Structures are given as structure tokens and as C-alpha cells.
């Protein structure tokens, strides 16, 4: 299976961003990709860098909606499993940080919503998002079993483990990670550890470029089920990163052959509350 990460800098024009996403899908398919992943809020500037920005509402849309209709058509045309990320507005007016998951036949398999909502300098996400009401779904796709951890969710080992327990072979991470946001190498280290401990591929797709208050780092990467980085995009520039992933490596991983057989889930509930 060949994976593509579309490391992009979205601008303020949502329609232009949609068209660029469709073009990235075409280029990925031309290079043999079976799966493409986009970064967090791929249709807009990163509006959570501001407190209660009223202009952000223009980017909120339903799922299914205009963007997913375009993406589903392109996914079907290119036989490309597609994981996007956008600002979702449901029928009740609630808003979420959401990743539609589209299969290679163009069908919308479901929507993962971010579970953990943070607030700190330039990341005022509680001003915009409700926490997910859909748990941690894993999708049966044309390329295998796929889970999504949206940005901040990757910091929670319980969430990353929940995806593994459900059999995820690849976990994709739409990300908005800033330059020097964490100590050097830490955001990469925790993703690599999650891949190693759970025996799946983990692919982080980051935004890139300078915005009003935040400069996003890029440096998207893919870790294999042994926690080794097998592909990495450059920092500071747009890129389409491709990586070959043999999903049979999941069954051969240390986690699946060793760690998982010695788990004691009957004990964990009382420890984690």
C-alpha cells in the first residue's frame, strides 16, 4: 500500500483550497498512492489562533456537504482512500474539528471528530469545537483497517490504544503543529512510541507555513509498526510525501507478537478512572 501525505498551507479561499486538494489527489494517484491524508483544517487559515473569531463561521459546513461531495467524486475517480479534515457544522448547529473518511469507491465511511479539546496560547480550540460524541472509530477501507487521531488526540495514549484494540493497521494524524511548539523531537517521539506499542503504522500530516500568530512546521512523517520513521517531509515548505507500507508488518510487529498477548485489560479500568 502506498500512502501520500499532502503537507500544504491552506489559504483564506475555501474553494481554492478544495481545488488544490483535488489536484493533490490527482498527483498522489499518478504516483501510485492508494491513500491520501490532509492536515488539520485543510480548507481555512488556522482560526483557533484567535479568540472567538467570528469570521471562522464561514468555513463551517455539514458532512456530507460541498467539500465531501467533491472529495468523494475524486476518490472514486482515482480509487483513492481519502482522509480530510475540516470545520464541521451539524444539523443542531454544533461545530467540530472533523475528519471525513472516504473509501476508494467514493463512499463516505464516516466522520471522526476530535475528542480532546484544548486551550492555550494561539490554540484556543474550546472557542470553536465541541468534543466528539463518536468515540474512536476504526474503518474497514479498501487498503485495510484505518483509524484517525486528530492533532491533540495523539497526546492521549488511551485514545491511541483504543484504535489499536479495534485492529487499526494504520493510524493517520491530521495535524496543526507549530515550529518549536514542543521540546525538540517530542511530537515525533510520542507518535513513534504509539506505533511501536500498538503495532500499527502511524502517519502524521502537518500544516506548513507562517500565519498571523503561528508558523506551522511541516515535517510530516510516517512511522512503521516498530516505531521507525520510514519517510519524512521537509520543514517549512509544501510537499507531497509518499511512503510504501506493508500492512502485513502489523502482524509481525513486537507489539502484536509479544506485548498484546500479555495485556491485563481486566485491571486497567480501575487504574484509569
Question: How would you describe this structure to a colleague?
Answer:
The chain has 273 residues and is α/β, with parallel strands linked by helices. The protein has one domain (2-263): Nitrilase/N-carbamoyl-D-aminoacid amidohydrolase (4-Layer Sandwich), CATH 3.60.110. Helices cover 25% and strands 26% of the residues. The chain has seven helices and 15 strands. It has helices spanning 14-30, 66-78, 157-165, 186-198, 249-252, 254-257, 265-271, and strands at residues 2-7, 35-37, 81-83, 86-89, 95-102, 108-113, 138-141, 144-148, 170-175, 201-206, 208-210, 215-217, 221-223, 229-232, 239-244. The strands form three sheets. Strands 1, 2, 3, 4, 5, 6 and 15 form a seven-stranded mixed sheet that branches. The protein has a six-stranded mixed sheet with strand order 7-8-9-10-13-14, with helices on one face. A two-stranded antiparallel ribbon has the order 11-12. The radius of gyration is 17 Å and the shape is globular. The termini are far apart. The model has no long low-confidence stretch (mean pLDDT 97).
Amino acid at each position: 500500500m502506498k500512502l501520500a501525505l499532502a503537507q500544504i498551507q491552506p489559504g483564506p479561499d475555501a474553494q481554492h483550497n478544495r481545488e488544490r486538494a483535488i489536484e493533490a489527489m490527482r498527483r498522489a494517484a499518478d504516483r501510485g498512492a492508494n491513500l491520501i491524508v490532509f492536515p488539520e483544517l485543510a480548507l481555512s487559515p488556522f482560526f483557533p489562533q484567535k479568540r472567538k473569531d467570528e469570521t471562522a463561521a464561514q468555513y463551517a459546513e455539514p458532512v456530507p456537504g460541498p467539500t465531501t461531495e467533491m472529495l468523494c467524486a475524486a476518490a472514486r475517480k482515482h480509487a483513492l482512500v481519502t482522509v480530510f479534515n475540516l470545520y464541521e457544522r451539524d444539523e443542531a448547529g454544533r461545530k467540530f474539528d472533523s475528519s471525513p473518511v472516504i473509501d476508494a469507491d467514493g463512499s463516505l465511511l464516516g466522520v471522526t471528530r476530535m475528542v480532546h479539546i484544548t486551550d492555550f496560547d494561539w490554540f484556543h480550540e474550546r472557542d470553536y469545537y465541541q468534543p466528539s460524541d463518536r468515540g474512536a472509530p476504526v474503518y474497514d477501507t479498501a487498503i485495510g483497517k484505518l483509524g484517525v487521531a486528530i492533532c491533540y488526540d495523539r497526546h492521549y495514549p488511551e485514545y491511541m490504544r483504543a484504535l489499536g484494540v479495534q485492529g487499526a493497521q494504520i493510524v493517520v494524524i491530521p495535524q496543526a503543529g507549530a515550529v518549536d511548539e514542543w521540546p525538540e523531537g517530542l511530537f515525533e517521539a510520542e507518535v513513534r512510541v504509539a506505533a511501536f506499542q500498538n503495532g500499527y503504522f502511524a502517519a502524521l500530516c502537518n500544516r506548513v507555513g507562517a500565519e498571523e500568530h503561528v508558523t506551522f512546521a511541516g515535517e510530516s512523517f510516517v512511522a512503521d509498526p516498530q516505531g521507525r520513521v520510514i519517510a519524512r517531509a521537509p520543514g517549512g515548505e509544501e510537499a507531497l510525501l509518499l511512503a510504501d507500507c506493508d500492512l502485513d508488518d502489523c502482524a509481525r510487529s513486537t507489539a502484536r507478537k509479544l506485548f498484546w498477548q500479555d495485556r491485563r485489560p481486566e485491571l486497567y479500568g480501575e487504574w484509569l478512572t
